[in-house]
Amino acid sequence: xxxxxxxxxxxxxxxxxxxxxxxxxxxxxxxxxxxxxxxxxxxxxxxxxxxxxxxxxxxxxxxxxxxxxxxxxxxxxxxxxxxxxxxxxxxxxxxxxxxxxxxxxxxxxxxxxxxxxxxxxxxxxxxxxxxxxxxxxxxxxxxxxxxxxxxxxxxxxxxxxxxxxxxxxxxxxxxxxxxxxxxxxxxxxxxxxxxxxxxxxxxxxxxxxxxxxxxxxxxxxxxxxxxxxxxxxxxxxxxxxxxxxxxxxxxxxxxxxxxxxxxxxxxxxxxxxxxxxxxxxxxxxxxxxxxxxxxxxxxxxxxxxxxxxxxxxxxxxxxxxxxxxxxxxxxxxxxxxxxxxxxx
Amino acid sequence: xxxxxxxxxxxxxxxxxxxxxxxxxxxxxxxxxxxxxxxxxxxxxxxxxxxxxxxxxxxxxxxxxxxxxxxxxxxxxxxxxxxxxxxxxxxxxxxxxxxxxxxxxxxxxxxxxxxxxxxxxxxxxxxxxxxxxxxxxxxxxxxxxxxxxxxxxxxxxxxxxxxxxxxxxxxxxxxxxxxxxxxxxxxxxxxxxxxxxxxxxxxxxxxxxxxxxxxxxxxxxxxxxxxxxxxxxxxxxxxxxxxxxxxxxxxxxxxxxxxxxxxxxxxxxxxxxxxxxxxxxxxxxxxxxxxxxxxxxxxxxxxxxxxxxxxxxxxxxxxxxxxxxxxxxxxxxxxxxxxxxxxx
Amino acid sequence: xxxxxxxxxxxxxxxxxxxxxxxxxxxxxxxxxxxxxxxxxxxxxxxxxxxxxxxxxxxxxxxxxxxxxxxxxxxxxxxxxxxxxxxxxxxxxxxxxxxxxxxxxxxxxxxxxxxxxxxxxxxxxxxxxxxxxxxxxxxxxxxxxxxxxxxxxxxxxxxxxxxxxxxxxxxxxxxxxxxxxxxxxxxxxxxxxxxxxxxxxxxxxxxxxxxxxxxxxxxxxxxxxxxxxxxxxxxxxxxxxxxxxxxxxxxxxxxxxxxxxxxxxxxxxxxxxxxxxxxxxxxxxxxxxxxxxxxxxxxxxxxxxxxxxxxxxxxxxxxxxxxxxxxxxxxxxxxxxxxxxxxx
Amino acid sequence: xxxxxxxxxxxxxxxxxxxxxxxxxxxxxxxxxxxxxxxxxxxxxxxxxxxxxxxxxxxxxxxxxxxxxxxxxxxxxxxxxxxxxxxxxxxxxxxxxxxxxxxxxxxxxxxxxxxxxxxxxxxxxxxxxxxxxxxxxxxxxxxxxxxxxxxxxxxxxxxxxxxxxxxxxxxxxxxxxxxxxxxxxxxxxxxxxxxxxxxxxxxxxxxxxxxxxxxxxxxxxxxxxxxxxxxxxxxxxxxxxxxxxxxxxxxxxxxxxxxxxxxxxxxxxxxxxxxxxxxxxxxxxxxxxxxxxxxxxxxxxxxxxxxxxxxxxxxxxxxxxxxxxxxxxxxxxxxxxxxxxxxx
Lengths: 344, 344, 344, 344
Prior knowledge:
Chain A has helices at residues 13-22, 44-47, 58-61, 86-98, 121-124, 130-138, 150-162, 188-191, 202-213, 256-265, 290-293, 324-340, and strands at residues 3-8, 28-35, 66-67, 79-82, 102-105, 143-146, 167-176, 216-217, 222-223, 228-235, 242-250, 279-281, 302-309, 314-320.
């Protein structure tokens, strides 16, 4: 029997991707959609400016949108996916958790909180049990789990694959797609024939979230990894797919061949949305490229390539679909992990 | 009286920019244009697919193009600007030098040769006197001076400005415009809604040319600087303007304010094409941007911004117009330096 | 002595262009800037997200912005340029006129009103005297003159040039730049790798405004021209420059050569912002193109080309810079005409 | 048992799409691939710069490419798909037909020849029997059938749907994607932030091919339809999907509702690649759009929308995926029709 799920912020770019992924999902059934107060009480088709390139699912199109408030969502919803602006998320997610909802959230608020698991299932699924600590401390019946920022998700799996060589420093330059900023986030006048070398708060997210994801959880508390990460972030005129240039120094020497092998061997999971191969490594030096490779593993895999010796150690490029693996798909995957681990 | 100049490779993207800059130049007079054999004997307007957004100069339009061969160029030409494909440049530039022509070349061949000065006038104008060594060794009446690659020119002036703090390591990720690859270099099907994280040979150019430019010349030989540079290069759908993300570690600590001050204080020259301010530093964190800022200093200045503390030291972004300061303008500036220093 | 001018809606995309054109203007002096209430009382540099690629003029940057209300604008301002959203324009422009201000407006409200001159000086400058009728009817000391929509301005001068052959029908398909929708008008997610074949209300503007511009004014009332115009409008990912495909049927046969000659011979004016040549006709069949040709006549000329026999009559393409000739420059030109004709 | 097929020009953009469509096709089996002489004898994976966003099929990747010459293609190949440059097609297609091969060609040569069927199966499948005339006249054992130009295919089905109202005149402005020009057809420097209002020979193709497709075949000869078509063609920076603005005048009045109904009711076929619904009509006035709608019917349907009264009659927009329905898919569909009608 399918778990009844709700989507907070259902009309936004990530909300639309969530609906696209959840509608055909065998384990989940969309039972509630919320948006801003001005949309509440209206049909989804009338308030969502649907822009995913598959058509809006018929059954969802006719659903009535409610306000983003736990009192407006039916009690028989068991799992909430949240893709709210972070200020809204910070305000309402705790209310949902208090009222017993389990929340898998893509919003950036609370990601670095001590008792909030920040999870990429294939990388640190064991951190999920930080929820026990969270429930103890906060007295919640519900629970709050986060997935990281889209640009963080893109490179952390490759670092996890190289971790056995001893990660010391990572320099990362991101080249990010406009969809990462939401539907109206980047105006066309800003970005056509242009690059914006700044995304507010993004660099810090890569630098801190990566250390939490690679950190260790001993059942009681979570310690950040020691790796030092420095990031520089850029927006370019691509629709989907964040590409990243990585320079990594490790304690043990690692050849490009060893790095490729470690990435290819890094295990995926058997969750429904996990790709068969988590990291697809390309041999052609000019791949991966956003338009050609963002759909590897149905948008849930990481593409890597251009692995070569650098002046300093190793360098390579990686890519992920920012609104699938980097956002909506990441939340769904965390929902699947919650289900598998008995939190629902 | 104006120096009579010739342009090798006059029909290409950089050749067109050379003509745009040389036509109104008070010290230079265009007296010869060369292109491939198939264009020889025809009028320039009929063989150049003119794509600069100012109109083709009338007097140049009617000039007859000759083959790229010193025997086809009039003896009363004193200075040659070369923007040939590197394999062609390697084959014919020495012939021109042997026959007494002074060549200011943008072509990538021979840039790292021991006796060929690689010059950004504001950074290492003193290296020009390596020409004495060159003439001694090669027995040339002419001379060959090179400007660096467009992506090298973009960041080296900023490093020169910071050199007093002791440069140790530089990580650079470039985000380059399509014009850097020439008129037909990047097909639209490759780059619309896409990024190509690979430009053949480009990374090595940044890594080696920068050390030559920052190196020291003692009158007899040139020693590369010790700075370690690692580069990662990307092509994006912008027309003009290479943007670069820089991470730099120095022996002495340097604050963002000190870095900005050092860049602003770095002197320009009084050559005709030198900008008043060599490095324009922006305070807004999201600048410089290619479309908005590539024309600073008429395309001859370097724009810098986003200067901030990094996890490792300092980080910032810089930008230059790749076909003006990064190519045609760089060659013209070297021509002006040759003139000022009595080599013509 | 310069006329003191004010700009309503000074922070928008057209407002910025107005400032760029007015700041160096010898006959006008910027004396007042207005914007929405939330910006009132603040310095212009702090409320305008300046995106023109020349720097913000220093003296304008420090000006204090006032609310868009005639009581907030100094009495010694003689001429108002308005680039307000049409609903705001409809509400406040009459107030300014009533209080004695002469308003040259780019806003779309009231363009088709019987007593409001809609003027392209080179095409129907004589319509300006409709202001006498306007003042009589409305009892205004001030006056309201409009320039047409950016896509209307692009093709009407070419029709005016062909009018002697007897215009019967015109089919026009527009291919419009994103700047026509204002700074935030078109999101990048909507338009990258895409075309939007719809611009609300735009087609009607081309169809009706063109007939008013080509109409005749007998000193008392204005009669629309009989030409039948059908339009189809599209938005594409270009920054500036509206390109239009025109099919025109005339009562008298007209050859492509005659059409080119008629366009080239169509007179410009000697107003300060008028281009020397109003319509630049290209012989190359693939011109004009937005990026290459939008700056003809400093953005104030119309570019035409591709003139050829059609299945039905004549066809050709035309292009104008939509935020210069099509908006800010059009308003400034109307301001110059008001000055020349003694309305200031 | 599958028909063994060959692909002429297999490395180009359309050739790659043909392989993508033919590889999983239940009725066809790829048995031969040809390309230019310089590629002959090499493995397909080494000579095709594969740019379709699904991976290159493994079995095809290892096939040896042969020269484009009937003597180099195995006799047991029954059906040839051709996507050659038209000059090459004109030279070699007749050789293949003479040697008994049935050729379904996308190349533009010979499309208007009296005895060559130009076919869109859903529109004029009955024209296929012109092959009897062809074989009689030319003495071929093989046969040559053509599909129209990509921009012709896009609008002709909508005209066919409206034909019962009596087509008189059609004005069409096309807004075409870069893939229509082939992999290297449009350089990025030409098209970023730009529109090119010219595609050599394209307008004539729309004007003549449409009349042949809508013409009538009486079993002996083919008569062109009387409709007058005038076209204006433009290239814009989209990857795939040709959008067209149509103005149509009919002898009988037709309302937008009737036009939508006629398009929706226009029958598809039961060929394997036919879409269920041939013409998908959108109600939203801003659809269809290339990026959102080019995949309707797996790229084999026509999308239409924006149907409204025009100054002159009716106007609307239509869209098709130019390398699927407009090229490779069109050829495959003609192959399926040849199979169904017993020509193989």
